[in-house]
Amino acid sequence: MKNINLALIFLALSVLSFKSDKPAYKLFNTEGNKSSYTKLIEDASEADIVFYGELHNDPVSHWLEYEITRDLHKIEENSLLMGAEMFERDDQLIINEYLDNFYESGKFEPEAKLWKNYKTDYKPLLEFARENRIPFIATNIPRRYASMVNRSGFEILDSLTDKAKDYIAPLPVKYDPELKCYKDMLNMGGGEGMKPSNTNLPKAQAIKDATMAYSIIQHWENGKIFIHYNGSYHSRNFEGIIWYLHQYKPDLKIITIETVIQEDITQLEDQYLDIASYIVCVPESMTKTY
Predict the structure, then answer these.
(1) Domains of the chain: residue spans and CATH
(2) pLDDT tens profile 225-236
(3) Which long-range contacts (CB under 8 A, 24 or more apart) does 28-35 make?
(4) Which of 10, 78, 188, 228 is spaced 20 to 30 A from 178 at the CA atom?
């Protein structure tokens, strides 16, 4: 009887030990082969531009953004630039003032246009830039202008003042409706045989991508590494922002990182092959930040 009890205890401990192996993520390269964080950092440190295509409510994305930034700063202390979709170009002045310690967060946060998850997910990045004297670029178009395009197309931007146009990529912007990212968006909300509900929706996405690319190219220079944080849709399949960057400078060395969600993270699903240089695979059971 004693031996049976000991065997049951051993079996229970073995099961618990097996279940304790619960990685928060697994990292794969673009071909779907398992990779390492060290290899990611090595490649990122040799790039001109590094994109982290996040899932906005995924805590692993936000943690890795911070860790990658911190580790790149250790390697390229004086060569790092930071920038994000989550900050709009007309807030650059107040961001610069905050980074220069003109005032504290109690003054900055009420005046800047901050996302609802700023304090948990993006404030650590901005504070890292502040503490280490790293330029932080607000890359995105003011949302009011993207909304105008969503309603009326690119042409409506011609009616803006020259001052307003300073916050947008130079007009007219190129637009390729055949890019997968825009074709997919065009079909959102329209099932088979149905007309898409808003044909301007991908144009609104494109004006964001074009403006973010323009913001990056305005501040990047040879010898610098610009790390950019954005929603995955803006850099997936090396399209979106990256397509526009190549219009300015085709020979940029770009590394992309993307987060995906899977029920089983032991291997990468075929649908995620080739979407990025590195794919961070997170289990479906992971908690969300909002």
Answers:
(1) 25-136+209-283 (3.40.50.11550)
(2) 999 999 999 999
(3) 28/268, 28/272, 28/278, 28/279, 28/281, 29/277, 29/278, 29/279, 30/273, 30/274, 30/275, 30/276, 30/277, 30/278, 30/279, 31/273, 31/274, 32/267, 32/268, 32/270, 32/272, 32/273, 32/279, 35/278
(4) 228
